[in-house]
Amino acid sequence: MDSDIVIETRNLTKVYRDFWGREKVRALKALDLQIRRGEIFGLLGPNGSGKTTTLKLILGLIFPTSGEVLVFGQDAREVSKNERIGYLPEESYLYRFLTAEETLDFYGRLFNMPAMLRRQRAAELIEEVELGWAKRRQLREYSKGMTRRIGLAQALINQPELLLLDEPTTGLDPIGTRWMKDFLLRLRDRGTTILMCSHQLEDVQDVCDRIGILHQGELKELGRVSELLKIRDRTEIQCSGLTPEAEREVCATIERLGGKVHFCGNPTTTLEELFVRIIRESEAHPGRRVRGLAEAEAAPPAQAALASAGQQPRPTAPVESSSGFGVGGGDGPADREAAGGGGGSSAGGGQMPPADPAHPDRSTSAAPPRNLEGDSGR
Ligand SMILES: Nc1ncnc2c1ncn2[C@@H]1O[C@H](COP(=O)(O)OP(=O)(O)OP(=O)(O)O)[C@@H](O)[C@H]1O
Ligand SMILES: [Mg+2]
User: Fold this and answer.
1) Which of 12, 18, 49, 87 is the pocket-test mutation for ligand 1 (most atoms within 8 Å of CB)?
2) For 214-241, how does the pLDDT look when each residue is reduced to its tens digit (9 = 90+)?
3) Which domain holds residue 272?
4) Distance 268 CA to ligand 2 centre (A)
5) Residue at 109 is within a domain
6) What's the structural domain count of the chain?
7) pTM value surpassing 0.85
8) Which pLDDT tens digit goes with each residue over 92-117?
9) Are residues 84 and 221 in the same domain?
């Protein structure tokens, strides 16, 4: 096995049986997957699609019906490999009457860590997950978000090379979610390989390098997030400093060259960005009311011009004063390729849904970039 491949599943199948040995559920069907060192891989899928089953098979908590799982090149049934793995289950399993310090000490003991190291590591982790202020409180007094944080600290007690996270952002508010995502990205940058299961599509999109989509135990799609989400028959140009006249001229030039301008105006930020900014502003200036900037802003002239030309403008949001141009070369079919060598279905590809004239704000055409400063490079 290539040393850069941390997890490999081959034809992995899991059938749950009833007491009489009769087949109850075929939870996983011939899964072929490779997770590479240093990546964040997201396993997505609806409820009951086999995500948790996959994690349990990787940990060796349950055994395959057929096929195999290799972790660090070893059979997953080899429990000694779990010393190199951290695991955050989807349900809280922590002892409610222990404090954060005692919890981490307990898990440190399970890894046979010496007392000095346990104390040092627990103190570091409690600071890293920002629970220093609550470290002597019993976990039964913790909120959901605090419980998720101490759960993550527990998963990191052994400085794992591989981290398995089942729904890591469940129960977290947007600030906690952002914190978790930034934390995972930092871990990845330090060399930890991460496999996470989630329903929170935005979170997966923000942190994962590659994803796999499971449905009814079958892998339906596999590839790099940036490739899978690319809309191939559209071109987006972002610029700033244009006057309304210059914007109109740019639009006219695009039309003259045979292109079609689908949108010209200010790009929108995400609700997460807005929420986090407002809460941070509120923390910095307690008591100050955050003004509704969106209401205060008038529609910019370029949008008005487009609207009068019969095109669908999108609503503006209180973001930066740059212009976003969504430019298409016509209505040709999207030539999306399945990246990463797997899957091959056409889910999620480049077709644009039509704009709804009754609800211009529901138009999903020329989806705005999530990061207004450009690609994060992932
Ligand atoms: N111990 C079990 N015995 C019988 N069936 C099980 C068992 N565990 C899981 N299943 C079944 O296997 C299928 C996959 O379950 P799994 O927990 O892996 O799904 P999941 O993708 O993690 O779902 P969720 O998003 O709800 O967490 C489901 O149909 C579930 O009912
Ligand atoms: Mg699950």
Assistant:
1) 49
2) 999 999 999 999 888 888 889 989 999 9
3) 234-339+356-362
4) 33
5) yes
6) 2
7) no
8) 789 999 999 999 999 999 999 999 99
9) yes
In a domain, 344, yes or no: no
- 215 Cα to the center of ligand 1, angstroms: 12
Q: Are 326 and 268 in contact (CB under 8 A)?
A: no
- Tell me what percent of the chain is helix, strand and coil, each rounded to the nearest 5: 35, 25, 40
Q: Mark whether 220 and 238 lie in a shared domain.
A: no
pLDDT at 273: 83
Ligand 1 atom with minimal separation from the 55 CA = 18
Give DSSP secondary structure letters for 16-83. Answer: EE-TTS-EEEEEEEEEEEEEETT-EEEEE-STTSSHHHHHHHHHTSS--SEEEEEETTEETT-GGGGG
Q: What CATH number does residue 179 fall under?
A: 3.40.50.300
Within a domain: 26: yes
Tens digit of each residue's pLDDT (9 = 90 or more) over 10-68: 999 999 999 998 999 999 999 999 999 999 999 999 999 999 999 999 999 999 999 99
Q: How far apart are CA 343 and CA 222, in angstroms?
A: 6
Same domain? For 159 and 278 the reply is no
